[in-house]
From TrEMBL:
Keywords associated with the record: Cell membrane, Membrane, Transmembrane, Transmembrane helix
Species name: Halorubrum distributum
Record-linked PROSITE patterns: MFS
Membrane topology value: Multi-pass membrane protein
GO cellular component, one term: plasma membrane
Main location: membrane
Protein name: MFS transporter
Length: 421
């Protein structure tokens, strides 16, 4: 990559990491908010659902805005909105104000994925590698963000912690202002972004239901529905696997080893059991998966890589429960699942870019993240239902089935959809 491309990758990877840092710091803060606002877990669940729901469904209008106004101004607005929302959280006097702050976070964060991925797919020649580095930033946020939040809560008041969490977004936004996205865009892509530079926010035209419908028809005509089916299966696997994973890992390791990491009397002791550390490790090794997926996407058609990786995920799901008999085998399968799970992401994103026209790239990623975060959110309900009515063995059989359907849909993409790029 040249210098301009590297700056874009740094900007988007940093922004991506912060989106997921904020996303996953919220569950850590819930343990404090129950007492602080004298409320119930059920009420806070509604507050969080509001924020996460907007995070998912907001991706589609976010994608529309990306195609009309360019990526950079929306990423900067996302960072400013997330910083502002956490500053509002830090001074929230009542539960309704807290709910408003979390809703603002969800709404502003929702535009990031269509904006960041659209920018990378248009501006970087080695697209797969760039998407891999972008994913690494996200994984670091996913793994280290909640851990840092929990550690800060051991030493500081939660209001100071949430105010401090706003600072990194300000820093990344300040860096982003200096990034010249047009230096990496080809002339044709600059024209498609609106006959103006992406950073200036030039528009292609007015946003309307008619323009959205036209761009959607363009996507469907090329077989994008098959791509959408795949990303939905990948989102279901992601959410079904990760939702109850900390508890599952803790239950298994609790029977295999006896380790106490934090004084049990600590109010945050439940955040530091050995299962949660393994959970962080599973998310952290996903960094290698992101890099691997990006490299594969630059060497083979990404949809073919997805067929193989989804097959691996299916096999690993079937091996998970049998591997619980020993510490070494359990750790090996758990970490392998972390690598394979995140290998999917850059391959999936490269596939979306390859099967969508440049002028509707933001919209295509908007639909993609409605599938992954919106429909995929049903994976949490699916996992909870299976664990309640059956158990972990049955849950991982279901996961193997979801991965197999994902492999089939990736095969269908290769055979029936039309490449646009």
């Amino acid at each position: 990559m040249d210098a301009a491309e590297r700056r874009i990758v740094k900007f988007t990877a940093g922004s991506h990491g912060l989106v997921h840092t904020y996303e996953l710091s919220i569950p850590i803060l819930l343990t404090v908010w129950v007492g602080e606002f004298s409320t119930t877990a059920a009420a806070l669940g509604v507050v969080v659902t509001l924020g996460y729901g907007l995070f998912g469904v907001g991706a589609l209008p976010g994608g529309v805005l990306v195609d009309r106004f360019g990526s950079k101004p929306l990423i900067l607005a996302c960072l400013a909105g997330m910083a502002g929302s956490f500053l509002l959280v830090s001074v929230a006097p009542t539960l309704p104000v807290l709910a408003a702050a979390i809703a603002i976070w969800g709404l502003t964060a929702s535009v990031y994925h269509p904006a960041g991925l659209s920018l990378l797919s248009k501006s970087i020649d080695r697209r797969g590698t760039a998407l891999g580095y972008h994913g690494i930033g996200g994984n670091l946020g996913i793994a280290l963000g909640p851990l840092a939040t929990a550690l800060l809560l051991l030493a500081f008041d939660w209001r100071l912690v949430t105010a401090a969490l706003a600072f990194p977004a300000v820093v990344v936004a300040a860096y982003g202002v200096t990034v010249d996205v047009d230096a990496a865009l080809s002339p044709g892509e600059v024209d498609e972004a609106g006959s103006a530079d992406d950073s200036s926010g030039g528009t292609k035209g007015e946003v309307s239901l008619s323009s959205i419908a036209t761009d959607t028809r363009v996507l469907i005509a090329g077989g994008f529905l098959v791509v959408f089916a795949f990303v939905t299966f990948s989102g279901l696997y992601y959410r079904t696997f990760l939702t109850f994973l900390p508890d599952l890992l803790g239950d298994v390791l609790g029977g295999l080893v006896d380790v106490q990491l934090v004084d049990p009397s600590s109010p945050y002791a439940d955040q530091f059991d050995v299962g949660r550390y393994l959970y962080v490790a599973v998310l952290t090794v996903g960094v290698f998966g992101q890099y691997l997926g990006g490299r594969i996407a630059d060497r083979v058609p990404p949809e073919r890589g997805l067929v193989a990786v989804m097959g691996v995920l299916s096999a690993l799901a079937l091996l998970f429960v049998p591997a619980t008999g020993g510490v070494a085998t359990f750790l090996a399968v758990s970490l392998a699942l972390g690598v394979a799970l995140f290998t999917v992401q850059p391959l999936s994103q490269a596939t979306v870019a390859a099967y969508s026209p440049s002028e509707a790239r933001g919209l295509s990623f908007g639909y993609t993240y409605v599938g992954i975060f919106g429909i995929g959110a049903l994976g949490s309900t699916l996992a909870g239902t299976v664990l309640t009515r059956a158990g972990p063995r049955e849950l991982f059989v279901v996961l193997a089935g979801i991965a197999a359907l994902g492999a089939l849909s990736a095969t269908a993409v290769a055979r029936f959809a039309t490449r646009r790029d």
